UniProtKB/TrEMBL annotation:
UniProt protein name: ubiquitinyl hydrolase 1
Broad enzyme group: hydrolase
InterPro entries named among the record's database cross-references: Papain-like_cys_pep_sf, Peptidase_C19_UCH, Ub_carboxyl-term_hydrolase, USP, USP_CS
The protein's Enzyme Commission number: 3.4.19.12
Pfam families per the UniProt record, alphabetical: UCH
Reaction(s) this enzyme catalyzes, per UniProt: Thiol-dependent hydrolysis of ester, thioester, amide, peptide and isopeptide bonds formed by the C-terminal Gly of ubiquitin (a 76-residue protein attached to proteins as an intracellular targeting signal)
Residue intervals of the USP domain: 61-252
Residue ranges of coiled coil: none
C-alpha cells in the first residue's frame, strides 16, 4: 500500500510507467453508466450522514450526480415541482394504479421507484439524496395509461373540409409539448424634439406607437404633450446629418 501508483492516463504503456513482470496490477471496471464502483459505494454509505442535514424547507433537496445523470436530475427536479403530480405520489395514489401486466412497460417498477424518490425529496429530512434506484430511468414506456398522460398529454383537433362536396374529416393527434412562437413587439419607441418658433428651450418627448402608425397619429399623440394642435405641428426627420421634411397631409 505504501508503493501504490494510480494510473489515470490511457496513453502510456506499461514500459513507459516502469512496470515489471513482478509488479501487481489492481484493475477496476467502470459501470455501464460510466460511474465507478467506489463512487456508488461512497454515495450509499453517505446517505445516512446526508439525512442529518435538514433542508430549509420541504422539497429543497438536491440530487447527487451518479455519473452523467445531470440531465436526468434536472428533469426530475422539474417534474418534482409539478404540484399536482407530486401530490399524487406523496399521497400514495400511484400504488393503486400500478400497471404490472403491460408487456411494453416496466411492470410498475419505474412508477414505484419514482414515488419513493418523491417521498424522500419532500420529506424534508435531507439536504441531498442519491437517486440510485431510479437509474434505467431512460427506458421509455412506449404505451401506457397513467397520471403522466392525464397531466402532460393532450390532443390536437384537425379538421379538413372538402371544397367540392363539403364533407368534413376530423381527427385528433396526441401531443405532449407545443411549440409556441416568441412574442414580437408590435410597437416602437421614438423620441421627438419639439422646437418652438418663439425660441424657447426645445423639449424632448418619448412616444410609444404601433409599428404601422402614420405621421398623423404621431401628431395626435404629441399634441397633448406639447400643448399644440396637430395642425400646427411640422414634422422633420433627422438622419445622417440630413433633415427630411415630412408632409402634413392627413393620409401620412
Amino acid at each position: 500500500q505504501n508503493n501504490m501508483l494510480l494510473i489515470e492516463e490511457d496513453e502510456p504503456t506499461l514500459e513507459d510507467l516502469g512496470i515489471t513482470d513482478e509488479d501487481q496490477l489492481l484493475i477496476e471496471v467502470r459501470n455501464k453508466d460510466l460511474t465507478w464502483p467506489e463512487e456508488m459505494g461512497s454515495l450509499a454509505s453517505q446517505l445516512q450522514e446526508k439525512r442529518k442535514q435538514v433542508p430549509s424547507e420541504k422539497g429543497a433537496t438536491g440530487l447527487n450526480n451518479l455519473g452523467n445523470t445531470c440531465f436526468m436530475n434536472a428533469a426530475l427536479q422539474c417534474v418534482s415541482n409539478t404540484r399536482a403530480l407530486t401530490q399524487y405520489f406523496t399521497s400514495n395514489m400511484h400504488l393503486y394504479e400500478l400497471n404490472r401486466t403491460n408487456p411494453l412497460g416496466m411492470r410498475g417498477h419505474i412508477a414505484k421507484r419514482y414515488g419513493d424518490l418523491i417521498h424522500d425529496i419532500w420529506s424534508g429530512t435531507a439536504k441531498t439524496i442519491a437517486p440510485l434506484k431510479l437509474r434505467a430511468w431512460e427506458n421509455h414506456i412506449l404505451r401506457n395509461k397513467s397520471i403522466i398522460v392525464d397531466l402532460f398529454h393532450g390532443q390536437l383537433k384537425s379538421k379538413v373540409t372538402c371544397t367540392v362536396c363539403g364533407h368534413e374529416s376530423v381527427r385528433f393527434d396526441p401531443f405532449n409539448y407545443l411549440s409556441l412562437p416568441l412574442p414580437m413587439e408590435s410597437f416602437i419607441h421614438i423620441q421627438v424634439i419639439v422646437i418652438r418658433l418663439d425660441g424657447s428651450i426645445p423639449v424632448k418627448y418619448g412616444l410609444r406607437l404601433n409599428v404601422d402608425e402614420k405621421y398623423s397619429s404621431l401628431k395626435n399623440a404629441l399634441s397633448p404633450l406639447c400643448g399644440k394642435s396637430p395642425q400646427l405641428l411640422k414634422l422633420a426627420e433627422v438622419a445622417a446629418a440630413q433633415i427630411k421634411v415630412k408632409h402634413t397631409n392627413v393620409d401620412q
